[in-house]
Amino acid sequence: MTAIQELKAFNLFHGLNDDELNRIVPLCQERSLKKGAVCFLQGTPASDLHLCRNGKVDIVVKHFEAPTIHVKIHTAVGGEALGWSALVEPYQYTATAICAENTEDIYLRRADLFKLFDQVPHIGCVFMKNLAALVSSRLTEYGRRLSKDAALDMRNDYEW
């Protein structure tokens, strides 16, 4: 599989043609991570967007009332992006990403992406639209989980 074909597997790049994807390929850096490795930590400065090439990465957040408790909110699998906080102010990771199994990670530096977006605004526009769709889908997923959990915890005397 070519690098361009590989990028096409990620929703973030839908709508970009091969010439545009060819501008992104040199920005991609790769690394192999072992099960248990941390990709990034909640609350730390976010500088890299991550693409899970293969493997599984658990996305966990600290419980606000009990910060030693971590709640898994998503498991990213091959073909999914994570660490989108690197592209959204205040550029701070809102969750921790921990490899649930050996994982191949592709990452792109925010500075490199933003420089490309300034040079070729169409790439930036398409990419950020796709990013907005990703964030929306994750928020919808979290909302469903939260409402399901709330319904399970509801008591007869509980009022909305």
Element layout with pairings:
Blueprint (H helix, E strand, L loop, with lengths): L2 H6 L9 H7 L4 E5 L4 E3 L7 E7 L1 E7 L7 E8 L2 E3 L13 E4 L3 E7 H10 L1 H33 L7
Antiparallel strand pairs: 1-8, 2-7, 3-6, 3-8, 4-5, 4-7
Write up this protein.
This protein is α+β, with helices and mostly antiparallel strands. It has one domain (about 5-150): Jelly Rolls (Sandwich). It is about 35% helix and about 30% strand. It contains 4 helices and 8 strands, in the order H-H-E-E-E-E-E-E-E-E-H-H. The protein has helices at about 5-10, 20-25, 110-120, 120-155; strands at about 30-35, 40, 50-55, 55-60, 70-75, 80, 95-100, 105-110. The strands form 2 sheets. It has a 4-stranded antiparallel β-sheet with strand order 1-8-3-6. A 4-stranded antiparallel β-sheet has the order 2-7-4-5, with no helix packed on it.
Q: Name the helicity range.
A: 25-40%
Anisotropy-based shape? globular
CATH superfamily heading = Jelly Rolls
Helix count, DSSP H or I runs of 4 or more residues: 4
CATH class: Mainly Beta
Structure keywords:
160 residues; single chain; 4-stranded antiparallel β-sheet; Jelly Rolls; alpha+beta; globular
